[in-house]
Amino acid sequence: MPPPNTAASLLRLADDQERRLPEDARAALRGVRMQVKTYISELRHAGLDWGLSEATLWWAFDMVSSRSFAATAALPLPHGTIESISAISSPRSNRTGNPSFADASDAPSTPVMLALCVPWACLLNHDPSPNATFKADLGQRTFQVMQRSSGFSFLAPKPLVPGEELCISYGEDLDNVQLAVKYGFCTKGNANDRLPMPPELVLAARGLRQQMLFSAAEHVADDLTKNPADGAEGSLQQQRSRVFAAMASLLDPIVIQKGSSMSIDGAFQAAGASPLRALLAWSANAHACSIERESISHGDDYTSRLASIFPPSAQLPFGSFCVDALREERKFMATILHKILKMYCNVAALWP
Ligand SMILES: C[S@@+](CC[C@H](N)C(=O)[O-])C[C@H]1O[C@@H](n2cnc3c(N)ncnc32)[C@H](O)[C@@H]1O
């Protein structure tokens, strides 16, 4: 396990870096921090904190949370129970994504969420298209990692190339905010990502005609795969995921609070209350935010990647790499969304 001065998540992100996080990520981070504070005070109250310092308890939470596997089980476990478990991850509704810990005082039939620590399996990195999967048998106390069947062929697993890294999925529905807050990294072209919108734009987006929107998104996806834009490296599949994730921001929006810095009240009014113009103004504004950072590549360890990009002497505030990667992904999505909206205008012959 990494020593106590390291961290996996954004839990202990410095204040100046936290201010640079997108607003919804800050809110998610606040949620996790509140949860950790509650856990720590409960531990102290129950005298189970072993006299450890506040900083050590935060580090311990960080390590367990980012390295454990979550399983639900009814206590006591029947002999031989096989549980399907999730890699460390969280339900989508819970943006904090932290498993609660088994409480022995729970009634025997009440399902509880267990945090399983599996020392070697906690070395497995996340891949949105993983080549490995896992299964736990809580009754037998076994945990198996298996090669994942490829494509439609369940009988013919994809052969592993010697030396190929085994990766699992930490959760198929995790967006970049959840990944960043909980694990300290995010992935390019995350199909679960959404751009959060102020409520007045959600209304504007509802007025768009879905068929024309899909058609515009198809045009942009074709265009992007033929002429990749700056920062668009990645597989064709990743490019398409980004386009449709950007579009899904309009159809399945994350609504941010009114009055936040992302609200475009002014732009909306200046745009003469035309919903489409307001959406265009907002997406242009969102992708104009400046990012000057090396792009993130998945697969290797966050800490060692940091060390390879920045010389050891560089005093890089913890988490800044992830904050930048998250902002860069958001910026790229906003750029794509802007293209989709412009294409929509062409399709609908509405744009002057
Ligand atoms: C369960 S551990 C995986 C093992 C870890 N790489 C190690 O060396 O100990 C989770 C941590 O691994 C890193 N990680 C896992 N998947 C990653 C990915 N796809 N890209 C970047 N970092 C990743 C993150 O630092 C995350 O908090």
From TrEMBL:
Residues 32-171 form the SET domain. InterPro entries: SET_dom (IPR001214), SET_dom_sf (IPR046341), SETD3_SETD6_MTase (IPR050600). One of its GO terms (molecular function) is protein-lysine N-methyltransferase activity. This is SET domain-containing protein. It comes from Volvox reticuliferus. PROSITE patterns: SET. The lineage of its organism: Eukaryota, Viridiplantae, Chlorophyta, core chlorophytes, Chlorophyceae.
